[in-house]
Amino acid sequence: MVATVRTVLGDVPAGDLGVCDAHDHLFLRSPLLPGQELADREEAAQRLRSFRGFGGGTVVQWTPHGMGRGAGSLAGLSRSTGVHVVAATGLHQAAHYPPARLDLIRDGLASLFVAELTEGIGSTGVRAGLIKVAGAFHTVDAHARLTMTAAAEAHHRTGAPIAVHLELGTAAPDVLDLLCGELEVAPQRVILGHLGRSPDGTMQREAARAGAFLAFDGPSRAHHGTDWRLPEELAALAEAGFGGQLLLGGDATVPDTPGMPFLLRRLCPRLEEVLGAETMTAALVGNPARAFALGPVRDAWP
């Protein structure tokens, strides 16, 4: 059976993704980023065209439910630019939502995630292809436990992978203990984001040994002073035998971040000097094809 990835234009063979930006945003809004919304469709199209011009094939948008993910525009953008786009369901940290909104959906999160994965996001007909959730700083707080529990249920019912925002790169062991231990999600179905924001090599190797995919998505914001360590971090993981778990992304969250074109134009050539072509091809092509593929569905939950 051929593995498939659920894009906004339908399911495609995982091997057709090509070069993949494994974590980025075409559209995003949050009360924590007032006046810095990603909401311009033509700017999104231009970024996709530029990404395509540098050899890009797929962009995975991690913008979850309720954060202006532009679901109604994603199919048209994918079709017009020739770039595969994967959309997300899921929920971010509580601070990104009005409390009244969380109260309305809190008890039905798993059903919401499943519906957006299988039926579509609202009336757009666009189906999500992954579930995005978020940890807290050095811990899994009550909100994270709630959303991760719902994500695990949706995963078991649909086979969709789970992508995790690690706050400043922390709490990976706690996230994996919950998702892969208590909630029985296979670690190969978990993608840990922002690992480079906490340059803790011991923690990174621990997450790698657990079997999760490791997303390094910088440079993404100007104040991320750890981005300069990215080549040595990736080299250490590759030399330790974890090159098959590495993913790369641009993670543009506000208009002035360099994002997906910069990933291929500047960052990847720099990384290839250190890692070599084989490891870079794995990180950009082979690893994403496995990380974002739909997996088997469990018949019952729990």
TrEMBL record:
Protein's UniProt keywords contain Phosphoprotein: no
InterPro entries per the UniProt record, alphabetical: Metal_Hydrolase, Phosphotriesterase
Record PTM N6-carboxylysine, positions in chain: 132
UniProt keyword list: Hydrolase, Metal-binding
PROSITE patterns: PHOSPHOTRIESTERASE_2
Family that this chain belongs to: Belongs to the metallo-dependent hydrolases superfamily. Phosphotriesterase family.
Official protein name in the record: Phosphotriesterase
Species whose genome carries this gene: Streptomyces laculatispora
